[in-house]
Amino acid sequence: MSVLKHWLLILIFALAQTAIVSDLCCQQVPQVSHYMFNPQFSNPASAGLTNSIVSSVIHRQQWYGMEGAPQTTLFSFDAPLRFIQSGIGLNVVNDKLGQFNNTSIQISYNYQFPAFNGTIIVGIQGGINSKGLQVSDVKAPETSEDPTIKGKEDASHFLFDVSPGVYYQVLDQYEIGISLGQVNQPAAHSELGIKDKRCLNLFGNYHFTMEQFPSIDFVPSTLIKSDFATTQMDISLLGVYQKLYWGGISYRFGDAVTLLGGLFIRQIQVGLAYDLATNQMIKASKIGGSFEIFARYNFNLSVDRLPQSYKNSRYL
Questions:
Q1: Contact (Cβ atoms closer than 8 angstroms) between residue 165 and residue 180
Q2: Contacts 24+ apart (CB under 8 A), 137-143
Q3: Cα separation, 174 vs 208, whole angstroms
């Protein structure tokens, strides 16, 4: 318990100064506020760690009301393969930003083995990204001679990328993960300057209860992303009341304060997040920020066992 606390504090404060002065990181990677419920999106080693088949959907409307603002839809699926100590996962993402329309399909696999009173997981993810650019929608001045868009037509290209990851889990206590996205830095349409950069992802969470609030499970978590030029950091604290309702707050350094909340209905979990921008984007959005909806369904694989409950925010 104390080891994780020390690890999280060191990790947070070591990177805090960099994160505070960096507004954006890994701009080609979609931003989601419900990251704590779907670490598979950033780390393939976290797929299939429950005794359930899990499917989830996230839809995000960033900077609502601003023309050309990012819109992201993410579908995820993961399942355990207990007979070979492994897990598999699938991510399908559509991300729109201005004239860019990107769709990716990623498949992940990992191998799990017990170690140090927990489980160490090593995973890899690979898939195809469809990069689309609608140059015809760019409204340049009539006198513009910009060679980047002059005479160009709408373009699209398929890229293949690979992302490895490592994860460590002690059930109902804590999780730590590190991954390197787009490790091969795929590039397309060099004349238009489209290239994916490597992105380092660090994720961690911790689970505890307090004597003063025995009915609430607390889950602090953090996600740090860096493309080795800029760094972005999210820190969150969620509370789950009697495994029926959940809510909390998150802070993205230099970007937004997020309020999250939702409930559990048997094997279904739903949630809503509202990001209040803390930078200049608060003026560009009709609601002062962004909103995001989340839904997940667990297909329990335990047929002959009594129902089990967990403190982990991913499968409460």
A1: yes
A2: 137/99, 138/99
A3: 9
Using CA atoms of 138, 142, 145, 151 in order, give the dihedral in degrees to the nearest 10: 50
pLDDT confidence of residue 140: 54
Question: How far is the C-alpha of 49 from the C-alpha of 315, rounded, in Å?
Answer: 10
Q: Hunting for tokens 């909806």 — which residue is that?
A: 293
According to DSSP, residue 45 is labeled: G
CATH number of the structural domain 2-300? 2.40.160.40
Would you say 225 and 200 are in contact if contact means Cβ atoms under 8 Å apart? Answer: yes
- Tell me the two tokens of residue 257: 């304060």
Q: Dihedral angle at the C-alpha atoms of 243, 246, 251, 256, nearest 10 degrees? A: 150
Q: Is the pLDDT of residue 309 over 70?
A: no
pLDDT digits (tens, 9 = 90+) for 44-57: 999 999 888 999 99
Domain residue spans of the chain: 2-300
Q: From CA 183, how far away is CA 312, in angstroms rounded?
A: 29
Helix, strand, coil share of the chain (percent; to 5): 10, 55, 35
Higher pLDDT, 185 or 188: 185
Q: Across the strands, what pairs with 188?
A: 194
